[in-house]
């Protein structure tokens, strides 16, 4: 970041530091007291910013750490300080207030609507050199919509119009969707109809947002009318268009209407980017109708059709969460025979689910099949099998498998080592656990203190005092004591 040197910079820096030295005590009621170390850290960060402005000639460069620490401090003031404007004025930060800083603070305060609006007005009125861009205006609009400050949001939108700044379709879509989430469908329709006043085109994205709002309030007749208008105006439906309406109908238990809609759109030549049955399955899963989704998949497989891999992954995950692992394993084999090409996410779901219920042979089959498909095993694929083997007390098999994966798969990460050390300790294999602690340190993976404590206590209890002492020395060396 570049900071311009200002006149009377020394006085400016001195006043900034004097204010910060007392800011936490002056505003303790609004800003909770923090420790001396944090106060010192903030002082150092702003001192670095000020020093850069003084010593860097016309332009000085500050470190990212100092810059983002300052943004964090300002954001805390915006969120928590009752007398925000007075506190910000005393900080004397005019030399660093620019579009980037304002945008970052607004993003950081995205859950504080009126406070963000006050900060934005303070930045505009107290810093004549600051000229807000569309980016800050739109971020503030989203924050105000998110926090349901609709009247203030429209004031900001009017300010944008006065300054001849256009609102992007993505922000309009965001606002319409939040109107729908709060049941304010009339306001959503009004905004949709007034888009010409903001020089914003009615894109497919905006049609989708209004469609979502209509489905949120269960106004399916209006949603269907909007689809017909969308086609008349020449807007092309995308996958989200179909998914929103199908999800809405399925959540209301209107599966027949969803099927009829997909068939009608197909007759008109507007085939969805994914197959209609996949959309129906996703809709049923999103609405919580797992049994209906299972029945539809059974019907598809009997007719020789296969869901796409993303739909199958969603279905498999939902079925496994309900505990029906046997059904999921059988379904996986059926769809693979019909031509489904599993991806990494598919194998991750199947291996994890089979391992959790102790079906280790099935988990190994899934892993070997993934290797045959050209996937190099990574920790989240082989860790569930390791854990399942240890739970069954098959430590020799688990340790041999782990050694094999270190050679053929991606290197194990910290969670895998932590899990394996814990499982070895529970099974009384403290020497192996100690060896894995050493391996972790060799790979620059810092073990947790409780792992050292668990292993050292176990080694002492089984008479391995020398090895326990070496583990304690290793822990001390890692801590730099």
TrEMBL record:
It comes from the Eukaryota. Coiled coil: none annotated. Signal peptide: none annotated. It holds the Pfam family PPR_2. Keywords: Repeat. The keyword Membrane does not apply. InterPro entries: BIR6-like (IPR044578), PPR_rpt (IPR002885), TPR-like_helical_dom_sf (IPR011990). PPR repeats lie at residues 203-237, 238-272, 308-342, 343-377, 378-412, 413-447. This is Pentatricopeptide repeat-containing protein At5g18390, mitochondrial-like. It comes from Coffea arabica (Arabian coffee). The gene is LOC113716982.
